[in-house]
Amino acid sequence: MSALPVSREKEERLARRMAALGVREAEIEETFVRSGGHGGQNVNKVSTCVMLLHGPSGLSVKCQATRQQGLNRYIARQLLLDKIEEKKNGFVAAQRTEMEKIRRQKRKRSRRAKARMLADKSQHADKKAARRAVRLD
Questions:
Q1: Phi/psi at 66 (nearest 5 deg)?
Q2: How buried is 98 (Cβ within 10 angstroms: 0-12 exposed, 13-18 middle, 19+ buried)?
Q3: Is the pTM value of this prediction over 0.90?
Q4: Residues 4, 15: contact at Cβ < 8 Å?
């Protein structure tokens, strides 16, 4: 897995996640095909699309997110681990945190927070009004 064009830290994080889920590199079958879509002559000539098949679980992933084969290999492994985690746990940790973030954003503000926000807006409006040119009628 040393051919991935990502930082050492990201590569180690990926390896730790694979170990935590019990996925070995030997269990992953990797094939390369030509991508489609944007990229012009590069995608027509170079096999940048990566397809991964995890033997024990039977899950497969296809990634053609970028024009670089190495980066697609890294992204495909992340996607495969997401699928395996979702199958094992019933959810993906990243999905859960995203849902929590959206829930917090939609949550109604408290009265105190709303009053503070409106006071700040009023103060900002007064400040901008003070910058206006003075009219002499």
A1: -125, 175
A2: exposed
A3: no
A4: no
User: Can you point out the beta strands (E) in 90-136?
Assistant: none
Strands (E), the chain: 28-33, 49-54, 59-63
| Residue type at position 78 | Q
Q: Where are the alpha helices (DSSP H) in 50-110?
A: 69-89, 93-106
CA nearest to 75, candidates 58, 83, 63, 84: 63
Edge-to-edge strand ranges of the sheet holding 59-63: 28-33, 49-54, 59-63
Please tell me the distance from the alpha carbon of residue 2 to that of residue 60, in angstroms, as a whole number: 22
C-alpha atoms less than 13 angstroms from C-alpha of 105 in its C-beta half-sphere = 6
Structure tokens at 83: 């699928």
Instruction: With both helix axes pointing from N to C terminus, report the angle between 8-21 and 69-89 in degrees, rounded to the nearest 10.
Output: 30
2 pLDDT band, cuts 50/70/90, is low
Contacts of 130 (CB under 8 A, 6+ apart): none
Helix (H) / strand (E) containing 48: none
